[in-house]
């Protein structure tokens, strides 16, 4: 099997305290995974869940930057509606410096309208959200490029910034953009992204993944970029067990029928096979989407029985 960069993506069903997030991140690091990512949400899928505990994504990533030592850290994905681009550029650069150059920025349009209303965050129409995300990427990468950056867009303006945020990584932290759309998302990713994420959790299996990667490649070629220079990734919900009962217990936590239908559910060998299918479709990076953040044995099992077969060398930096 072609080696795949294997990462853990945390999206707890009921939110989390920082100590719980840290425990999962440390388990991820100990198990040998490449990176620990978290979602950027202030509300769970059930807006009426009284047990949901929100945490601010980049604040916790700043804590993890100091409390972990090897795994790369990021958000999949940060909503462009949540933060102004200049502030986000400074936040990510701060986490990058705090972590010794381990931060990555995943940026999306934002989609959860009820969440925005519940926290007093404006939620523009879809086209405007795409416009804002594209302008944000121009501002963020422009500021990271160095002093003297200016930008005049429809939604954001930057006037001759002489003191931009300075990330540790050169030229800047990796930028991840992705989605299932056939045109605008690949075009934006081709222009700005280090990594294109094909969002496998939206369905379609390996065939859809291959098609989305092809759309991205065409978008790269249209602007004269070599698509081979970009990473390609997918998100895969996972429930791995040493026994059928253990597998089913973990699968039940996934909850959503849509997520379960696209998940890797089974023994370590079956999960390894599913990851191999994504690799055959073109993915070089797979984010294993976990929901029970207290099940540290789940992380340890995948690290011991799956990871050695898909990513035989431990890496602390992106290719």
TrEMBL record:
<dbReference type="InterPro" id="IPR011251">
    <property type="entry name" value="Luciferase-like_dom"/>
</dbReference>
<keyword id="KW-0288">FMN</keyword>
<feature type="region of interest" description="Disordered">
    <location>
        <begin position="162"/>
        <end position="181"/>
    </location>
</feature>
<keyword id="KW-0560">Oxidoreductase</keyword>
<protein>
    <submittedName>
        <fullName>LLM class F420-dependent oxidoreductase</fullName>
    </submittedName>
</protein>
<dbReference type="InterPro" id="IPR036661">
    <property type="entry name" value="Luciferase-like_sf"/>
</dbReference>
<feature type="domain" description="Luciferase-like">
    <location>
        <begin position="11"/>
        <end position="251"/>
    </location>
</feature>
<dbReference type="InterPro" id="IPR050172">
    <property type="entry name" value="SsuD_RutA_monooxygenase"/>
</dbReference>
<dbReference type="InterPro" id="IPR019952">
    <property type="entry name" value="F420_OxRdatse_Rv1855c_pred"/>
</dbReference>
<feature type="compositionally biased region" description="Pro residues">
    <location>
        <begin position="164"/>
        <end position="174"/>
    </location>
</feature>
<keyword id="KW-0285">Flavoprotein</keyword>
<dbReference type="Pfam" id="PF00296">
    <property type="entry name" value="Bac_luciferase"/>
</dbReference>
<keyword id="KW-0503">Monooxygenase</keyword>
């Amino acid at each position: 099997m072609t080696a795949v960069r294997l990462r853990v993506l945390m999206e707890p069903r009921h939110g989390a305290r920082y100590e719980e997030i840290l425990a999962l991140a440390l388990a991820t690091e100990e198990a040998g995974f490449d990176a620990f990512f978290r979602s950027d949400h202030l509300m769970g899928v059930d807006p009426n869940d009284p047990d949901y505990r929100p945490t601010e994504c980049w604040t916790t990533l700043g804590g993890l930057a100091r409390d972990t030592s090897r795994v790369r850290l990021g958000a999949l994905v940060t909503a462009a509606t949540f933060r102004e681009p200049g502030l986000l550029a400074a936040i990510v650069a701060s986490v990058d410096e705090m972590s010794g150059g381990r931060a990555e920025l995943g940026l999306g349009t934002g989609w959860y309208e009820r969440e925005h209303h519940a926290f007093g965050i404006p939620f523009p129409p879809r086209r405007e959200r795409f416009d804002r995300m594209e302008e944000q990427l121009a501002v963020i990468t422009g500021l990271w490029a160095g002093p003297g950056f200016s930008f005049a867009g429809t939604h954001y303006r930057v006037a001759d910034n002489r003191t931009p945020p300075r990330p540790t990584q050169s030229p800047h932290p990796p930028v991840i953009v992705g989605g299932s759309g056939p045109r605008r998302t690949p075009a934006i990713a081709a222009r700005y992204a280090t990594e294109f994420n094909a969002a496998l959790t939206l369905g379609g299996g390996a065939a859809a993944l291959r098609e989305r990667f092809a759309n991205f490649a065409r978008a790269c070629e249209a602007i004269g970029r070599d698509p081979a220079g970009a990473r390609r990734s997918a998100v895969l919900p996972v429930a791995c067990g040493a026994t059928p009962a253990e597998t089913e217990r973990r699968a039940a936590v996934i909850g959503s029928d849509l997520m379960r239908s696209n998940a890797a559910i089974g023994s370590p060998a079956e999960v390894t096979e599913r990851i191999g299918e994504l690799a055959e479709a073109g993915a070089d990076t797979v984010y294993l989407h976990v929901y029970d953040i207290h099940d540290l044995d789940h992380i340890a099992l995948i690290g011991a029985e799956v990871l050695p077969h898909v990513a035989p060398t431990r890496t602390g930096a992106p290719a």
